[in-house]
Amino acid sequence: MKTEDLKNSKEYKYGFTTDIENIRAPKGLNEETIKFISNIKKEPKWMLDWRLKAYNRLKVLKEPDWQKPKYPKINYQDLYYYSAPKSSSEKPKSLDDIDPKILETYKKLGIPLDEQKRLNGIAVDAVFDSVSVATTFKDELTKKGIIFCSISEAIQKHPDLVKKYLGSVIPLSDHYFATLNSAVFTDGSFVYIPPNTRCPMELSTYFRINASETGQFERTLIIADKGSYVSYLEGCTAPMRDENQLHAANVELIALDDAEIKYSTVQNWYPGDENGRGGIYNFVTKRGACRGKNSKISWTQVETGSAITWKYPSCILQGDNSVGEFYSIAITNNHQKADTGTKMIHLGKNTKSKIISKGISAGKADNMYRGLVQIKNKASNSRNYTQCDSLLMGNKCGAHTIPYIKNNNSTSTIEHEATTTKINEEQLYYCNQRGLDQEEAVSLIVNGFCKEVLQQLPMEFAVEAQKLVAISLEGSVG
Amino acid sequence: MKNFYDFKVDNIIGLSSKEKEFRNKELDLFDKNGFPNKREEAWKFTDLNTILSKNFTNITNDYISLKEKKFELIKEFDHNYLFVLDGKLVSNEFKFEDKNKVSIKEYDYEKQTFVRNQNSLNLLNNALASGGYSLEISKNYKFRKPLVVYNHFSESIKEQIISYKNSLILNENSEIKILNYTDTNSKNNFFVNSFDCFKLKKDSSLKNIFINKNRCNCYFHNYQKSDLEHNTTLDNYILSTGLKFNKMDIEINLNEEHAKSSVFSALSLSSDEHQEIKSSLNHNSKNCQSYQKIKNVLNDQSRGVYQGKIFVKQEAQKTDAYQLSKALLLNDNAEFDAKPELEIYADDVKCSHGSTSGSIDLDSIHYLKSRGIPEKKAYQMLINGFLSEILEKLPEDNLKKFLIEKLGR
Question: Which end of chain B has fewer CB atoms < 10 Å from its terminal CB, N or C?
């Protein structure tokens, strides 16, 4: 990346707000709000009951306090739980029906919503504040029997699938934020890939928080039926605001026999300014279940945004011979805090998992890998390999590694490795000598440090991610 | 739920009213949460509360030790000794040393050190401790022979808790090797909760070895707090124990430059033994080194736990810290849990950790068998090889020989 590019992108370029009228649910968290959300989405009764059950559970749950990044208490009564662009109260039939301002926003974000960008070959479901605005490429996917729509639509049109799988990986009473999401989730994506189908294109969702004092609670459910394959991308941005905003999403993946799901995230929520004011609290629950034999779930994440990131995309390896993978880059700068990692729970025989985590910490940030690898006693011949490397830039930041390792099977092997270092001076010197300035050199070295993870990203995302890596570390050296 | 314990400060004789007040306060703090369970991060893998409630009906602290004085000296190597009966210092002998250079007393509770951290057993120790010893070694004095601390527990202890504190001060440029030798023939259940405080002054060196004589049904918890000054060395060796439950909680503070510390452990566990090591190595100053190597062989329903932490303060540049835990699981009912943790705030450091757990390499077994070695022996050879890396590091030839024999290999 050239210096000019870096300068142009120095500021958080997604920090603008879009001035459109919103429909909001009344402020506060109560049964009325939940009924309001359910009603506006014309949900069937079973869905409302499900939400209320979650809400009742939430009343007895306590907010977790074991995590390292501490944050001021969130006043849940002071948030809007539903916010939708007014013009979308009638579901748009084609792109022409969408508020041009929203389209413009997405254009600024570089999302290929326009049909003319068909060449990109990515089917997009865009979620603006709380509702899904448009889903492209529907026809082509429908031909193959693939269902890719908003979860609200799926509740109406495919209730059997939703009923069967919703909450089957992240149960209603899982933990505080997951339960909160179950009670008030507003929209999100739903994907179903029929048996023996390979999804012909990358599916993608773009999330944007626009309105202020809004929490975004989306819910994604992906089901890969026997022998199918899908690759799914997720991106997120939010405007710059002084107050902290809450984002508590739930993502559930289900892979049946011989199916494979690849889930990639580039998370670039607003991280707050350099004094740590504002920014998104990204408290996300992501979990995948390899239900069938020979199934595979692979998580790839590039975490550069958010004031506090707190997420552990996990795999439950139930089926024999199933595989779980986790590739992660977490970059924190200024006052950002990231506490992220994964859980690999081996239940089936011959299950394998691999964890590659790269943490980069600069400024006054804290970066933590926290993970669990557990091999239960029936999971014979299982294997896990974990590698977590941390890079520290400057001496005001912190890098931490907390792996939990539990082995209960004598034929299984767990290997864990971790290192913490700073950027090698000799490498920097070498780059400088060849005419790269300090920042270019650092960006090059960091990209090299992250290479193993960047390689896992789909092409379009890899380029974006590489740029992001450079931008996020902007100004952290020298 | 009915409590399975009943502790009273009044059971301890000869306390001043001020001391009583302090101890009662500590006991109240302990009573709030009782024995630790998995909700506490320091006990993440072990629910001590449940373990104790299953094996005890009513633990008390009203034990008064008998004047039992017989014990067997180790004959294999020359040594000095302390004889500690049920936590109380009974006799000592320093016949190989210059007696003016060594000071040994009963532990002085007026000047006690105590810790109050997330481990509630420390509160209990603060409340109930009595007995224990204070050992101080003079400047520039290097022990000629090792010191063996015979920790003997009477057969009459049953359903009781024994709490005590020890202190050891090594003055400038002094040196000692200590073997903590736990010895009991008791078949009864009892609980030992001890606290060790080590102060290592400039250039001093301490090697501290833990082993026990035979299997027993007691539950041990030991908290060790060490403060290291400039250019000091502290090495801990934790060897196979055969105790029903043993948790060593080791806190080492590397407070000044060039302090070095290591924790080595070779454990071979069987039946339902539970052995746990929790370490936190705090690098508070620059240019310090720490090294940890933990090896566990787990058979039957045994359980090995390692929670190791390396903490590097912002000013502790040029830190070199290493941590490795390895486990061999020989049975599906055995379990190994590890939490090798790094918390680092300085950038010019070399910190790494590794953890592996798995089965014995079947290719190696095959190799040995194809050379005419019976399977059982082949296993034994590989296990010995696995543990010998640690055993080789033990100091002093005679002592090493004794320990290796003791471990039955």
Answer: N
